[in-house]
């Protein structure tokens, strides 16, 4: 047995050992911005807790006039405008926060400069509208053009069907109604299938130009100049047809409420038959069928113009101040058939793409 006066053996702490060689970490690529990319997140910097400043300890330079904290470098905040009925110092309930006026000083503009810019922009727009109305109002009545574009989907479909199959359509007279002033006015295209429009002729005009380019591309002779050539040819045909009708009406003394836009609409309907002929030509169905389709579309367009222009060239006795005698009526009928017959020349020029 050991005696109690014997001391315990001394404690030995383990001695830390380090490796003789520490390998270097692999080199990391340098980004174009000049800093290195790490495979692991870089060590976090040590942060120290700081006391949160109280409202009384914040410097007055960081407080706006409403007593709210304002960070340095940020644009000044607008003080909330109290709503009507809300006591002073209370915030309006959620959903009823009034909108403050735009503060242009945050973008480096004062209120006077901003107001001057807005007034200058409004004056420029008003001057442009006035210029267009004064210079183009006499040639193209802007207010009257809206009538010819007052169309709907059902009107466009029914009108296209009427242009292709006009044989059994009745009646051909245009409908009218009494206005608030007690004067009789014609119904717009949405309410009258016989009313002329400019939507279908304009869309057919653009479609014809694109289809002529496609037709040339299929035949391996496409050239960018074909777009301009097709547009020039189509515009020349429309203006030539319009001038022929207006000249005939002037020589025969045909007067009426018909405007130039009415005749322009009727002359533009021929593009529907031309488009159908070009589409059949793209199918390569043969020369015989192609000619048959062209002749059918010509007769359909001619019949449509005979029935539609009859109210213009041969108006009713109630619509004219003086009745038309028999000789003048015969000349007008011949002129009407001549207008319909010349469509084969215009359509023949258009299909040669």
Write up this protein.
This protein is mainly alpha-helical and 353 residues long. 47% of the residues lie in helices and 2% in strands. The chain is built from eleven helices and two strands. Strands 1-2 form a two-stranded antiparallel sheet. A hairpin with a 5-residue loop joins strand 1 (176-178) and strand 2. Helix 4 (199-218) packs across helix 5 and helix 7 packs antiparallel against helix 8 (287-308). The longest helix has 27 residues, at 225-251. The radius of gyration is 42 Å and the shape is elongated. The chain starts with 110 loop residues before the first helix and ends with a helix. The relative contact order is 0.07.
Layout of strands and helices, then pairs:
Layout: H1 111-136, H2 142-148, H3 153-164, E1 176-178, E2 184-186, H4 199-218, H5 225-251, H6 260-268, H7 270-282, H8 287-308, H9 310-313, H10 326-341, H11 343-351
Multimerization status = single chain
Beta-strand content estimate: under 5%
User: N- to C-terminal separation?
Assistant: 128 Å
Number of strands: 2
Q: How confident overall, as mean pLDDT?
A: 77
Task: Note poorly predicted spans.
Answer: 55-62
Neighbour order of strands in the largest sheet: 1-2
Helical fraction equals: 40-55%
Major beta-sheet overview: 2 strands, antiparallel
Number of helices: 11
- The succession of helices and strands, N to C, reads HHHEEHHHHHHHH
Structural class determined from secondary elements:
mainly alpha
Shape summary:
elongated
Rg from alpha-carbon coordinates:
42 Å
